[in-house]
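Assess this:
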Amino acid sequence: MVDSTLVAIAVVALILLAILYYLGVFVSVKVEVRKPPFGDCTFLYKFHRGPYNTAGKAFDEVGKLASKFPCTGIYFDDPEKVGSDNTFYAVGIFIEKEKSSKSDAEEICHTMKNAGFKSIEVPFVEKALYTTFPFKSNFLCILVAVAKVYPALRAYVKEHGISPHPYIEFYKNDKIYFVAPLDKNEEFYVPEYEYAAKLEALEAEKDG
């Protein structure tokens, strides 16, 4: 009886370890400064306000419309500074100009703009804060990635005294690329964010 109980406990423990391994709990996060995994792109997006952990629905919409293209999220605010309810972000796709055919690009642009998406052009940058994490198309995997990656990014930024922004999550194949530009930063901000920032500044002046 004791032997069978120990075997059962060992099996459960191995299953739990396998699940944790699958989710990436034991993955080591290596942060560096290097070129990002994308060049000049068209960013098709919708603009959102609210906690970043509610972005899942926005990603689901993009995945249904443009499954052949890498889903991309750009996060403009630090929730520790402005509060999670006041953060802004944009979710959509990057159309990589050197890797996408003209016909595919035109077709997906037409589809997504009809669904209410807007577009800006984002540039290639030479240097960006960069790391990757395995992607398993699983919500729990994303939670683990966020919990492990962002503390590592913040620690690297503090240690090296750099100011990368905004933060980008680029989902491609079996990886999540976490990138924050170190040059041409302002070109990654969508017009809606600039308008919202100016509006909040005016409201703050009135309250003051």
